[in-house]
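Input:
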Amino acid sequence: DARVTQTPRHKVTEMGQEVTMRCQPILGHNTVFWYRQTMMQGLELLAYFRNRAPLDDSGMPKDRFSAEMPDATLATLKIQPSEPRDSAVYFCASAPINQGEKLFFGSGTQLSVL
Amino acid sequence: AQKITQTQPGMFVQEKEAVTLDCTYDTSDQSYGLFWYKQPSSGEMIFLIYQGSYDEQNATEGRYSLNFQKARKSANLVISASQLGDSAMYFCAMREARQFYSGGGADGLTFGKGTHLIIQP
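Output:
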């Protein structure tokens, strides 16, 4: 079964530290999304890429967050410096070019910033 | 204004009963898509069902059906014969028509706050 792979599954860090989350989309999918889930805000779209090019990152705090896709098999979301309010579950999702309906989600990275 | 509204924060339902989870949406686009995802306690997001705004028939996938009422802008999820394993968070989501960039493909979904469904034996 093809699936989106996210690492790490869990991350505990201290305020001010850099955090990098990684995502391997399903092979052949051309669009990759980053979502953040919190109790208060629910699921928020942070950024997404098509064919590795950033399309929309308007949901992402620009001063500390950055998202990149160095190649078709890897997407990264970086927070530097991290703050306690960044504690959340971060999901990566991908979608194929010919099936524009559903998104395939990874298992998420649960981030706790102390 | 919220794009997706799910008015039921939590629901308790007896096993084997049918369940309707409410979802209303707000868009001025003519072309859009509506989705339901399930999130069990393990945390993964599982796609359940999709309805396109131009689809005339209500979508069905096994025990799931989507009651699409376009004029009311509602897209309720119906689960027939509920099972204990249906206990989870359920999210309604929408994709609106946007300007497509080269390459084609999906755009991001806007999610509602979710409904926590608990099936009781």
